[in-house]
User: Fold these one by one.
Assistant:
Number 1:
Amino acid sequence: MIFKFNELLKNRKISSLELTKKYFDAIKEMDKTLNSYVCLSEDEAFKTAKLVDEKIAKGEEIDLLEGLPFTLKDNISTKGIETTCCSKILKGYVPIYDAFVWEKLKEKNAVLLGKTNMDEFAMGSTCETSCFKGAKNPHNTDYVPGGSSGGVSAAVAGGLCAYGLGSDTGGSIRQPASFCGLVGLKPTYGAVSRYGLVAFASSLDQIGPITTSARDAAIVFDAIAQKDIQDSTNKGAKEKTVPHLNDPISSLKIGVAKEFFSYGDEEVLKHVNEALKTYEKMGATIVEISLPLVDYALMVYYIIACAEASSNLGRYDGIRYGMREGGYKNFHEMICKTRSEGFGKEVKRRILLGTYVLSAGFYDAYYKKAQLVRGAIVKEFRDAFEKCDLILTPTAPSTAFKAGFSSLDPILSYMADVCTVPINIAGVAAISLPCGFDEKGLPIGMQLIGPNFSESRLLNVANMFEEETNRCYFKKVLKGVYPDEL
Amino acid sequence: MNYDIVLGLETHVELSTKTKIFCGCTTAFKGEANTHCCPICIGLPGTMPRLNKEVLHYAIMAGLALNCKIAKYSKMDRKNYVYPDLPKAYQISQHDKPLCYDGHVTLSNGRTIGIERIHIEEDAGKLIHEGGATYVDYNRGGVPLIEIVTKPDFRDVEEAVEYLELIQLTMRYIGVSDCKMQEGSLRCDVNVSVKPSSQEELGTRTEIKNMNSFNNIRKAVNFETNRQIDVLSSGGKVIQETMRFDVENKETSPMRGKEDAQDYRYFKEPDLVRIHIEEDEVLKIKESLPELYGEKLKRYVEEFKLPVADAKLLVEYRKVAEFFEESTKNVKEIESYKNCSNLILSMIFAKFETETEKEEFKILVSAEEMEKLLNLIETKKIRNNMAKKTLDEMLLTGKKVFDIISEDDLKGLTDEELEKICSAAVEQNEKAVKDYMSGKVKAIKSLVGFVMKETKGRADANLAEEILVKILQQKG
C-alpha cells in the first residue's frame, strides 16, 4: 500500500495535502463508530503535507514514507501533541520532547494524523480499558479490535491511515493485528528505541508497525529501527529488511511446537495448519519441536510486567503534569486521591500485583523465581532455533472478542495472550499476519517467531506467503482511503 | 556497668562531574529553581536514563583511594519510594552489586576502619516551603552521588569525625568532589549502637539521618548513645529505628514508626544495561591517581622533617602541596623545606580569608619564582626577613624576585664592612650606648636594628650583635 501511495504522490495523481484531507474526512465520518482516534493533529499534518507538495512541485525526490499519513499509538510521546496513554491521570499532558521513532518519521516528512486509542497504559487486550470509549473492530463493530494497540489496528483496517506504530509488551501489536486482519511486527527487544514510549514494562516493551502488508511493515521497520544512544538497551536493526523481502524460502525450516496449539479454537487451528501446508508447498520443511516452558510464560509475564509497571507508574502523582484531584490536606493525600481517581481498575490491579511481588518477603518467591524461569525460557527458544529457522503458531487462541469481554474474569482475558507473551519474555522477534477468516467473517492471524534480530527473515517469509496466496486474506471493510480507489 | 559505643557511617558524597548521572544537565550548585533540568531528570513519561561514564570513572577513583576492590560486573537498581522531590518515584541506585567493595582507611590512632561498599546513585530534588505552600526544585535531581558505607568499626564519635575529615580531604585530593558540608555535597547518616563492655555481639542500632556538620554529629551521637545506655540500664530494649536530630533542642527523635518501615522493593533497573569494568581501565585509573593525603603527610614529616602540624596545613589543600613541592624540587639543604613551609604558612596564608581561597590557591607568585627566593636563602645571599619582605611585595605586585632584589642587595657584606657599620652605629646612637653601658642589656637590640636598616637587611643579625658587644666592651 505504501508503495502504491508513493507512486500516486510522485506521479502527481494526488497531492499529499489532498490525501491528508481525504483521511481527515474519512476519520470524521467513520470514527464516530470506530473510535480509533483519541486526538487529531491537523495543524501538524497539513504543515508537513504542504512541505512535501512543495518538494514534489520542485521536482525533488521523495522517500517512500514522505507525505504519507499515518498514526501513532497514544503512548508514544509527541512534542506539542497531547499524549495520554488513554488514562485519565495523563489528561492534558503535552510532552515537550519527541519519541525517537516519531523523530525518525518526522525526518522523513511522514504526516501524523493523530494519536490512536489503546488500553489504559497498554494494559489490556481489547482496547476497552481506555479512559475514552473503546475502539471497535472495522470487520464487525460489535467486536473489539484487540489490544492494547486496538486504535492503531482499527484505524489501519478501516482505511483511516496508511499505517501505524503500536507497542507490544505481551502481544499488543500482534493480537490487534490478528483481530483486524493486518500485519503486526514485534521487533527483537533492542531493535527499536523505546525512548519516548511511555513505559509499561521496560524489559518487555517494543515499538513496531501495524500495516496492511509485510512489505509495508518492512518499509516502516527500516525507517524506525536505527541505533539510538538515548535508549541504553537499544542496538538498532541488524540490516535493512526491504531488500530481503523476496529472498527464496525453499530451504526454510519451520518449527511447530504443540504447546502453542493446545489452546486455540478449532477454526483458528484449522487455518494456521492450512498456512503450514502452504509453506510446505512452497518448499519449506516442517520440524516438530517442543517448548515445554512456554506454559509458564504467562505466569512469568504477569509477575515481571506488573512488577515493572508498579515502579514505572509511580511517577503519576499529580505534581508535575496530568490531572490532580482536589480536596487534599497534604501531599500524601494529594497523591492518594489523584491516583485513586486517575487510574482505571485494570491498571490499579496490576500496580497492586506488581507491588506485592516485589515486596520484602515475597520477592524471592515471585519476582526472583520469575526472573530465573525467564532465563530458562530465553535458553529454550535459543535451543529451539538450533533446530529450525522460525516457529509458526496461532497469534491468538481465538478471533476477536465481543465487546464487553474485558469485564469478565481477568484470568480468562489474560489467557488470551498465551501465544504472544512468551515471545516478549524471550525477547525474540515475531510477526502476525492474516491467514483466514472464521465463520463470522472475523480475521484469523498466525504468528511467525524468529531468533534475535531476524526481522529480515520474518518479513521475507511473511511477504512470500502473501504473494503465494495473492493477498487474499486482506479485506477492505470500510470506506476508508485506499490507493487503488484514488 | 560499662558500655561500649559502636558507630558506623553512611556518607553521601556529591561527585563534581560536569553533567548529571543520567542526562546532560549541569551539576552546578544553586541556579534559579528548575533551570538545570530536562525531560530525563524530571522523569517525564517515556524518558530513559543514560549512564554518564565520567561518574563511573570518578566513583572508581574514590574506591581506589579508599583501598576498595572494584567489581568486574555491576548494575543499577531501582529503589522505589514516594516523595515529591523524587520525580520518578524511584531512585536509580545500586543494591546488591555495588561498584566498589571491601576497602579500608587507617586513622591516626592506628585503628583500621573497614569500608563495606561504595555505590553510585542519583540525588533527589529539594522541597522549598514558602508562605504556607511547598514547591519543588529539581535542579539537584540527578546529580551523581556516591554512598560510602563503613563497617561498624568506630569506637567513639571523634574517630567518626576524623574519618569524615579524611574522606573530605581524600575526595578533594583526587578531585572527585568539593565535599562541602554546608552546601550538602557531603552528608552522612550515623548508625549508633551501644553494648555492655563484657558482651561480644553488637547491640541494636538506630540510624541518625542527614547530619550536615561535624558539631551536630558530636551532639547527636552523644545524645543518642546516652539515650541508649539509659534504655539498657533501666532494663529496656533499644528499638531499631530511623532518627532525626533536632538541632535546636539537641536531641534525637524517631522519624517513623517500625510498623511503616520502608520497603524499597529493589529490582534491577530495566532501562540500563549491566556495567562491565575492564581490569585495564581500573589499572589506568589507579596509575592516574595522585598521591593521597595520608601518604603525602607521612612523606612531608619523614622526608622533609616538617612538624606534623605544619605538614598537615600544607597537605590539606592539594594546590598548596603542589606549589610547595614544585618550589622545593631542587633544594639541597633540608632546612629549605622548613623555610618554604614557613613562608607559605606565614606569608601566603595570611592573604587568604576563606577555606575556598586556600583551596583555589590563586597567587601572583609562581613556584619558579619561589624556588629562586629559596635558593637565595639557601646560599645565604639574603636573610629571612629580607626574604619575607621580598615575598610580600611579590604577592602584592606580581613582580619577579630579581625585579625587587638588586645586584647590590645580593653582594653580601664582608666582615670589614659590617664592622665599619657597627662602629658607625655605636658612634651615632649615644643614648642606646649609654643605656647599654648602664646595664640595660636590651639596648643592644636597637643598635642591631640600626645595622640592619643600614644594610637593608643584608647583615646577619647575630653576627652584628656579636661585633657590637665586642666594640662596646672595648669602649668600656
Note: The mean pLDDT of chain B is 91.
Number 2:
Amino acid sequence: MNTMTKMKPGLTLLSVILLAGALSACGGNDGNEEKSSASPSQSETAEGTADAKEVTITLSTDNSQDAVNTANAYIAAFEKKYPNIKVELETRPGGTEGDNIVKTRLATGDMTDVFFYNSGSLMQALTPEKNMVDLTNEAFQQNVIDSFKSTVSYNGKVYGAPTASTMAGGWFYNKKVYADLGLQVPKTWAELIANSEKIKEAGMTPVIGSYKDTWTSQLVVLADYYNVQAQVPSFAEDFTAHKATNAGTPAMLRAFEKLQELHDKGLMNKDLLATTYDVGLKMLAEGKGVQYPMLSFATPAILQNYPDQIENLGFFAQPGDDASSNGLTVWMPGAAYIYKESKHVEEAKQFVAFVASVEGTEVASTVSKPTGPYLIKGASIPDDVPSLVKDMLPYFDNNQTAPALEFVSPVKGPSLEQITVEVGSGIKDAKKGAEAYDQDVEKQAKQLGLSGW
Amino acid sequence: MNGVFKRTYSYWFLLPAGIIYLLIFLTPTISSFFFSFTRWDLSDWQYIGFENFRMFFREQSLAIGFRNTLIYAVVTSSLKVVLGLLLGVLLTSKLRSKHFLRSIIFFPTLVSTIAIGIAFSMMMHPTEGLINSALSVVGITGPDWLGNPKLALLSVAFVDVWKGVGIALVIYIAGILSIPEDYYEALQIDGGTGWNKFWSIIVPLSRPATHSVIILSFIGGLRSFDLIWTMTKGGPGFTTDLIASIIYKQYQGGFYGLATAGNVILFLVVAALAVPLNLYMNRKEVDL
C-alpha cells in the first residue's frame, strides 16, 4: 500500500502542489464565510439555526433496492429533524464483493463516517477495536434489545445499533397450492419431503433452487440451526473453540444431508444452476415453484414486484426430525457503525441514535415492511404487514427462536455458498461437503487469531 | 572504461525509469514474497512461515485451480493455434471476401470481455438460452453448458477461443505472408500438392508465428480471470475455479496473506511453464 502513495516523485510533487493550492483555497473560503456571517447585511438568508455550522457526514450501505430505500428514508427524516447535518449516501455491492470493499476501505483509511454492515461473524472480521467507535455507553443503547447487542460486540464493547427488523431463515410456500393439494404446514422434515413429493406429482417444482446467485444455496444448511442447537446446545461454543466440527456433529451434518436429499429426490428445478434469486422470487410468486428456502428479507422485494401475489404466500420454519421441537432460526439485522477515524463522530452518533429509535423504525417501516420484530424497545410492527410476516410472530411469541450460527460464533467460512451449491447440485455428497466446510472455516478462524485453531 | 566515457547519454538518464521500475514493480513484487509468509489484514501481519502455501496445496477447493488452469490453458492455446493456422491459410488465399472475413473474425477481440461473458452466459442458459433453443428446433436437447460440472470449463474455454482467435489469426496472417514466394515456386517445380504446400512450407515456416501464439495464449490462459468470473464465478461449486479466481476469492474473504501466497504460486507456475516452453520453442525455430 505504501508503494502506491510513494509512486512517482513527479506525481508526488504535483499532488503536493495541487493539495497546497486546494488547502489555501479552502482557507480563503473559510475566511470569506467568517466574514460574511459576521457582516449583518447578508444575514437575510440565514434562519434561526444559522449559527449552527452545517456538517456533511457520509453513509455507506449496500446497493440492494431495499437497503437503498431504507437508507434514503432515514436520511430524509433525519435531515428534517437536524437541518444542520447533511447525510450523503454511498452505495456498494452486496455479498463478498461488498465485504471486500468495506475491508479495503477500512484498511486504507477511507471509510464513510457511518456504515451499515452485517452484524455477527462478518462484523467480527472487521477488527472492530481498530476501526469502529465504541458505542457501549451511548444513551440510545438503552433502546436496543440485549439479544442484539452481543452480535455487534467485540471483547465486551458494543459497536453498533440495529438498522432494520429481525429476519428469519425458513421456507416460503404458496398457500394456494398447499390448499389445492390439501397439504399441511410440515412439522417434521419427513412431512416436508412428503409434501414435496405430492407437489412434484402435481407437476410443479416443489423446491426452488436459485444457485446462479450462490448465496441462496446456503439457506437449507443455515436455517437448520434451530434444530442443531436444540440437539447440541453447546455447538456454537465448541465450534468456535475447534472442539466440534460440521462433519463430526451428527446434528450439523444432518443439515447438509437435508440439502443432499432435496437433490437426490429431484425436488428442485432442473435449471437451478442458471436460476437467479430474482427469477426464484418470480417462480414463487407465480406459483411455478411452491416452496423456497430463503431469508424472510425477500418479503419487501416480493411485495414491491408482485403485490397481488403476496397474500398467497406463507412462511414456516425449517422443520427438524422431531415435531415437538419446531422453531425458527433468526437472522439479526445489519447494524450502523461509526468509523473510528471519522471527523464528525458527534454528528454520526446523532444519526445512529436516530436510526436506533422508535421514530427510526417507524420511518424505516414506511419504505420497507418489517420482516420480523424490531430490536428497539417499544417499536411495534405495523398491522399492514403481509400475512407471511404474521406467520413468523408466533415463533417469537412462544420463544421458539434461535439466532443463526453466524451470530453466536465468529467462525463462518467464506466458501460455504460454493460448497452448498456442490451438495445441492449433486457434485459432492453431504459428508464431503461438511468436511470441505470444516477446512474452509479453518482459514477464517486462523485469520481471526482464535485460540484452539 | 573507455566505453563508459564515450557514451552519448549519461547513466542519469536511466534514473527516472529506474525509480519507477523500482517503486511500482520491484517493491510490490518483493513485498508480496514477504507477505505470502504472513497472516495479514492489510495493516497488521504475523509471520507464519509456509502455512499459507501448505493451506493452498492442501485444501481441495484451492488445489482444484491448478488442474483447471492447466486444462484451460492447454485447451485454449491449442485450439487457438489450430484454428488460427487454418483460418490464416484460408484468409491468405485468393478468397474474394477475405478482408471482410478477417474483420469478422477479429471483431470479438475488440469487444469487452465482460460484455462477451454476460452475453454468452445468457445464450448458454439451459432452457431459455439461444444455443439450446436453436438446438431444440432440430430436436437436440442441449446440455446445461455452464451448469454441468464436466462441461462448464470447456464452455468457457470455447468462448475464450472465440474471443481470442482473432489475435492468433492476425499473427498467422503476418507469418504466412512473410514466407518468401521462392518456396512456393520450388514446390510448383517439384510438382507438390496443396497438402505438401501446407504441411511442408506453411507449417514449418510459420513456426515463429506459432510460437508467439502459443506463448501469448498459454500465458493468457494461465492467468485468465475476467471471462471465467463473469460467466461462472468459478462455479458450479468450485468446478471452474482457476488459480486467479481462487486468489480473488481469498482476497474477498479478507485472507490477504493467503491470497498473496496464491499470487506467488501463480507467478512461479507461469514462470516454470513459460520459460522452458519458450526456450524449447526458440531452439526449434527455423530461419527463413
Note: The interface with chain B takes residues 1, 3, 6-9, 96-97, 99-100, 103-104, 107-108, 125, 127, 130, 211, 214, 270-274, 414-415, 418-419, 421-422, 425, 427-428, 436, 439-440, 442-444, 446-447, 449 of chain A (CB under 8 Å).
